[in-house]
Amino acid sequence: MSYSAPASSSSPSNGSSGTSEPERRVLEYDYEDPAYRVFIDTLSYLPPDEVALVCAAYRFSDEAHQGQTRLSGEPYITHPLAVAGALAEWRMDVQAIVAALLHDVMEDTAVTKAQIAERFGKQVADLVDGLSKLDKIEFQSYQDAQAENFRKMLMAMASDLRIVLIKLADRRHNLQTMAPVRPEKRRRIAHETLEIYAPIATRLGLNNISRQLQDLSFRHIHPLRFAVLSKAVKAARGNRRELLTKILEGVHGKLAEAHIEAGVFGREKSLYSIYRKMVDKHLSFSQVLDIYGFRVIVKDVPTCYLALGALHALFKPVPGKFKDYIAIPKVNGYQSLHTTLIGPYGTPIEIQIRTQAMHHLAEEGIASHWLYKDTVESGADLQDKMHVWLQSLLELQSATGDSSEFLEHVKVDLFPDEVYVFTPKGQILALPRGATVIDFAYAVHTDIGHRCVAARIDHELIPLSAELANGNQVEIITAPFANPNPAWLGYVKTSRARSRIRQFLRGVQQEGASALGEKMLNQELRALGIGAAGIPAPVWEHVLQETGKKTKRELYSEIGLGRSLAVVVARRLAEGGEVPQSESGASTTAPLLIRGTEGMAIQLATCCQPIPGDPIIGLLRKDQGLRIHTHACPEVRKSRSPEPQNWIHVEWEPDPGQVFDVRLKVTAKNVLGVLGKVSTAIALEGINIGYVNMDRRNAGIFTDLHFLVQVTGRTHLALLMRGLRRIPEVVRIVREQESS
Ligand code: MN
To answer: pTM of the full predicted structure?
Structure first.
């Protein structure tokens, strides 16, 4: 098609002055493509400056898609034009129409969001960006729960309702033009439409487009059944024409007799709904089709009841089938009178009576509020109106007390308090808004949570406290030695994760405390020259009684948790239950050997993060167990003198056989790719990176890179640092002491 080349193709007959006004040019441009002209004509509800913006968007999109064709061979622009046309039929605002014209440019061309924002404003850019993000998500599973989550995720991502409407129009046009696409792909898209998009349209009350999406999809999935069924429906309508005419004449006559002005329309069922009824309810074709449906549309509510009375006088109503949805509307706002009559030859006739306004709501749902808006409230923003609409639904619900699923869904859909993320296998998990990677890990499996050390979102390493966003692909990295960290409790959102972490910590604390206490007591006893086995049972009894403990285990826990001092208990035991005179003085016993994996009872202090090879000392705090610091730690220097009896002599076990967290600050030249270079060097040493952060504030010649790495000890760390120094850009490496 040749709608382009506005300047060169303008004919000389078009006025001799070369300086025609911009509006004039737009018009010239229009005439080249009838579809475009029809589209521009439907925009008459917009002010001229907005129409000009739409024209500009059309040209912009056409240029961006230049050279691209649809599979049918048509120029690509025919597709966005059709989508925008649908939006114009819904009388959507100018941003929505411009976004519809541009909806594929970010996906398929080199145009960026910034360029769209600059040319057409931030709102349009956000809409186009939202649509591109939706396109990137692929629906994988057809299980019910997954489809439901997927629908919710789509709605959550489409924070603006206009995105959903554009997406629905986009999908409809794609289905309409899918003939040249290969069959499997056609079926996949049709399935996705039936599972995801048609239900979304239904929920928003967009029954028209929902029916179209269903029939189009049905045709792609079961072309033969579609053909047979549509032929049968056509034939059946022919056969029944006589009866139909008879009923219609009767209805018209009766209404005229009662002086009621009304439109009477036969109600066509969609092929897909006929098909579903046959399959789901095991009905024959004629059983489904033998019900006649009519719709009577009148001018106001009183006339609805008048029409009902007249029709009940024409044919006998079926008892119990009358429903007054005008007095008591459905929760989605639907209003009509429903009745079933017994027609000629006993044929059931279903009749819906409603006003024009009710009809619009029933057909176009949420969109009807813009489609048939009063001119008085025309300036109002789309989102505001949606809120008004929802508000009216809420009021309706409280008035009728009917809590249908619909409202719940719409609320969830439009004000989502959940985020939807992907597992590496493509499953979708729903988590509360604000949930972190830790919540995700526990949602997958308790063991994954317990062993979680790091995580990637969309293939990038992120801190465990990172909040999840819709559509994230989350991957948890686990390590066999890892344990839950009490700090996690500070940022988990789900009760599942919280309770699993608590449960673990409680268990570990009790287990660990008693094991630690026993170890500490035995050390002290050895220092006094006796073995634990050498203490007679009565002495144990005596000491337990004295300390108010029932079992040795309880006493060990007391020691492990720092509530009793090992040295004091050891002396009591050694002296046969006699209370020693002096309780003061730090123990001078052999060091307590620690591995660092004892659990809650022995913790490596986070301020100095000791690793094997560091000289260490333990601080016993009441109820907290033993905390291991490095000798160099400022914390140690600060509190050593006031409480000397609580400092425990500790040393590393020869080979703890696990990895320890250590923070590094790498100062490097601020050049492109330096972070990647350093990270790669670390990975090459076979070292895990738990966390990476880059200082942005000093964007000068040098930049500070912060790493959390996992090493087996000082030797390992020294090896790593030597490796990093070989990188030319690296100027300084220090181990960070305080968390900053
Ligand atoms: Mn598209």
So the answer is: 0.54
